[in-house]
Amino acid sequence: MSEHRSGINPGFVTRRTLSLYGLDKHNALLIVRDLGELPGMDRVKLIDAKQTLKVVYDASRHSIDDMIAIVEKHGVSIKDNWWSRVKLGWQRQTDQNVKDNAKHEPHCCNKMPHR
After folding, report:
1. Ramachandran area for residue 5 (φ above 0: left; ψ -120 to 50: alpha; else beta)
2. Does the 10-103 domain belong in CATH 3.30.70.100?
3. Which of 104, 100, 109, 70 lies closest to 16, judged by CA?
4. pLDDT digit string (tens) for 56-73?
């Protein structure tokens, strides 16, 4: 069992890897700083040589689109190839599922669910 920052629900922790384009030392530092300041962000790792960003966050509080918005704010873009688009679609779907599950109120097995 690994340790998480305070305020992180381990049941909703999500790991994502983004391939980037246009990364330099200046905007890399800004991206890591801005992402690290988000509440619900557990870890941020930027690999300059591979132009890759790895994030671990509480998906009940944020989505991959929040990460992309911060990256693009600093002039860096996500690689736009077929595989990146497929992965991004999958990541958006799973983030939405986590967010929906976090809002779900469980009901007792012998009662009708609330609607």
Report:
1. beta
2. yes
3. 70
4. 998 888 899 999 999 999
